[in-house]
Amino acid sequence: MIKYFGFFTVALFTLIGCKPKVKPIEYGHQACDYCRMSIVDERYAAQLQTSKGKTYSFDALECLINYKHENEETAYQQELVTDYNTPKKLIPAEGAYIVRSKKLPSPMGAYLTAVPTKSEAEKLVETNGGQIFTYPQVAEGLENLPEL
């Protein structure tokens, strides 16, 4: 029993130790890896990290999506978006809800705003109008989204 516990503990710490760390975005100094514009708005940045640890940063969710579609052969270990309600805080994209509203313009004009919960998305829509999407729906491609 102790032998199995020791193996499990080592395996667990190995897995935890291998998880890539989020690299802070240097707002105002770092360029978007897709459009090359300076990453300035702390409410909209996004990030990808490959399984080899290479990090790509973006000034908006739409840049991340466009970059992924142009680089489909690359495997990504982490996809992160900024929580609109907590500037500079990157959250896992997979579980995020995306609000698309004309009253919430994102840096590249796709009007995509990410939050971590459906209730937060609903509050944004109550205040600003728009529609709620899951990250996988938006990640399929911006051309698939309905017109605003």
Strand elements, count: 7
Main-sheet strand order equals 2-1-3-4
Q: Outline, from the CA principal axes?
A: globular
Helix content: 25-40%
The overall pLDDT average reads 89
Give helix and strand order, one letter per element, not per position. Answer: HEEHEEEEHEH
**Helix/strand class:** alpha+beta
* End-to-end C-alpha gap: 60 Å
Strand content: 15-25%
Q: Which blocks of ≥5 consecutive residues have pLDDT under 50?
A: 4-16
What integer value in Å does the Rg equal? 17 Å
Main sheet characteristics: 4 strands, antiparallel
How would you portray this structure in words?
There is one protein chain. This protein is α+β, with helices and mostly antiparallel strands and 148 residues long. It has one domain (22-144). The protein has helices spanning 2-18, 61-70, 118-128, 135-139, and strands spanning 46-50, 55-58, 76-82, 90-92, 97-100, 112-115, 131-134. It has a four-stranded antiparallel beta sheet with strand order 2-1-3-4. A hairpin with a 7-residue loop joins strand 3 (76-82) and strand 4. The longest helix has 17 residues, at 2-18. The protein is globular and about 40 Å long. It starts with a helix and ends in a 9-residue tail after the last helix. Mean pLDDT is 89; it is low at 4-16.
